Structure formats: structure tokens, C-alpha cells
């Protein structure tokens, strides 16, 4: 039996960020990962010389002094993670009803650029970008202000839907659809998703947008180094079987290997529904377990990982969102981006192309082994991929003939490697109509068991890091932690 101050289940961004924060503050930490490689959605994989990302495709607010840049400095990531800035004149391009609308970095460039397409809507665009910034700034750990209450409590932004807000903003349906075009970044749904999640994403990338040179696993690798250099441990192929509790608190973890680990504090950075299967204690009520297990999940993606023929496709320094129908919310879409191997890249080596996919579309194959789900499943993926590539070719003629190889993944793949129920890309579905029902806080009814990860605060690199800070604050106190971040 090994004794630790903190045992962390899961080595995704939430688990690794908690491990890095606590270990640098002198806690004896162990991070337990069921897979061979740590990283969760930060993981990459390689096919025929091209490295593909699995979840973290690009990040924002990384110029000097911006919020994520300050968190990266605090987590000692800046020196280890190299970035390549996306086109400031159009880091994201929304393709809708036959036209392409670029999103430029910065409030005034954003307003000026979109106003060229909507000259009568300049005031609405200005109000939109100002509102997104104001909503985001009210989040204390996003703005790094108002630390007297570190939790986000703005009722309007949490109870108002994205679509509700945009209908009030403007009568121009095309502009409403264009502004909604970043919806795939948070798995939004019409009449459900709170404005807050849209605002955080919009402001985050409006400030600046970057790709990670060499892949998102650089972040995971750097955090692992920070944990280990501070004396912490990361144990892979360590699947947790049970969290054992006494009458008052959690006391130890048993692994499927039979090994037992004890700790003073425990952090679960896996999906809360999976945690419910690992812990048997009257401290967690049946009603809570039922609620956690019944929260709807976001959809997942069908992804095509593309390897281009050498020196055939110019590097595209922006991200492309395509909507072929009359409504962003209701029509299918695809997201397309090139992978960044080096700074100031000129030619593309690989790309990621994905579209929305529901769990129900692949559920019939869920009990078959990964990598051997049968010919029917392989044929299903091939037909889906060829259809998606055909849609890509219409938008970028001459692309498909320069594809040397491609590979695919479905919600089954994501479920297998991350353990996320139904392969949900963004975890639980945030619902403005049921804020209490979907709310999961860092603290549990087990006094020394805490939660982290994308389901606790918000998804995405910023949401998960902020959530990790709040989780660590439950153990070490919020004041010293906030002072450290401020003084970095």
C-alpha cells in the first residue's frame, strides 16, 4: 500500500492540470491512467508519418498578457509548447448559403470585417462582440478579476439561450446563422445551450487564435514533466476498480491489478457517470447517482484523418466551418483544418475533417472489439467518409485527388479511448432550462473526494483549466492559489 496526499483518477487535461498545481505546492500526488499513454483528449496518434490530434485542435487568448497565456505561464507550459498564430484577418471562416464569412481577431477588426457583408448590421455586430466580452469578463477565473467569488453566477448568461439572444440582437437571419457558426466548438443545441458557453468561446478566440506546433500531446507531455519534476507520479495502465470509503470519507483506491493505493484526498477527472460505478457509499445518495447518470450527453463526431501527397496542398492557416442548409442549428455541417507541423508552414501534410455524429448511428456495433468490429462497420465508415470528402471537394476543388491516405473514427472510437459515455465530444449537455439538474460541482458529499474535467466547469482548454483551479482550491484554499496565478 502506497500513501499519497492526493490520488487523481484520469490523466486528461483536468487530471494533469490538478496534478501539476498540487505537486508544485508540495503535495505528494499520483495520477492514475487506464491507458498506455496519458493525455486524454490531448493525445495524438501517428499514421504514415503524420501526427493527428484527437480533441484539442486550436487554442485562443495566448498573446502576452491574455488569460490562457497567464495560465500557461503558471503551469510552466510556455517554454515547452510552441504555437503558430492563425490568420488574424480570418482565423475562422464560416461558410453559409454559398458565402464565406471570416472572423478577424480583435473587436474592431471583427466588427469591420463582418460589417462588409452586413453593412446595415454594424451596430448589431458591435453589440454582439461587446456583449460576448462582457459576459466572459464576469467569469472571475476567465478574466482574472473579481476573486471575491471565483464561481460564475451571471443568471442572464446561464438562463438565456444562444438562439434567444441572437433573435433579440438582430432580425437578419443570415447574420444570426453566421454568428452561431462556431457552435461545433461547444456542441451546442438550439433552445438548450446557455449563452455563457458561446460567449466564453467567442471571446476566447476573438482575442487571438493559435495551432499547437507538433500536436496537442505537447501540452500533456509538458504537464507530465511538471508533475514528475515536483515529485509526483503518473502511473499508466492503472485502471481503477473501486474507491473504498469508510463511514466518513474515501480512504483508498483498488486497481484492477489488485494493487491498493491510499490517499488523504481523491480527485476524479473522469466522467462523473463512470465515477458512480466505482464508488459504493451511502454518503452519495441514490438521487444524486440517478441524476448524474441521466444527464443527456452532447453528440460526438465522425472524423476523417487525411494524409496529403507531399507538396501538393498549400497550408491553410485558418479553420473552415461549412453549413450547406438554411439553418446552422438544423443542417449538417463539417469542420476542416490543416495540421501544423512547423511554424510558418507553407505546405500541408495532413488535415482533420469532421462532422456531427450521434451515438445511435453506431450503437449496434458497441459490443464488438475495437479494431475488429466487422466488415459492415468498415463499409459504413467508408461510405460516410467518401460522402464527407465529396462535400469537402465541392468547397476546395482539387483537394481529394491529392489525398494519399485517410483513416476514420466514430463515437465508438472516442468512447473506447476516453471512456466518455456515448463518445460525447463535450461531455454533458449544458441546458439553460435545467441548470440545477445538469450542475455538477467540484465538491462531493464525500468530504475528501473532488471532481475535475470538462463536465465540471466547462469544456475546452480554458474551461478545464479553470475547473482544475477550483478543484485544487478545495484542497489548498482559494486565496494562496489565486495569489500564485496573479503573481506569475
Concise synopsis of the structure shown:
The chain is α/β, with parallel strands linked by helices.
Structure description:
The protein starts with a strand and ends with a helix. The chain is built from 17 helices and 19 strands. 35% of the residues lie in helices and 20% in strands. The protein has three domains: 2-45 and 59-82 and 214-295 and 440-486, FAD/NAD(P)-binding domain, CATH 3.50.50.60; 105-207, Guanine Nucleotide Dissociation Inhibitor, domain 1; 298-426. With 488 residues, it is of the alpha/beta class. Strands 1, 2, 10, 11, 12, 13 and 19 form a seven-stranded mixed beta sheet that branches. The chain has a seven-stranded mixed beta sheet with strand order 8-7-15-16-17-14-18, with helices on both faces. The model has no long low-confidence stretch (mean pLDDT 95). The protein is globular. It has helices spanning 13-24, 67-74, 107-117, 122-137, 140-143, 155-159, 162-169, 173-180, 195-207, 217-229, 272-276, 286-294, 375-395, 411-418, 435-438, 460-476, 478-486; strands spanning 2-9, 29-32, 44-47, 50-53, 59-60, 83-85, 92-96, 99-103, 209-212, 233-235, 240-245, 250-255, 260-268, 300-308, 319-323, 334-338, 350-357, 403-409, 449-451.
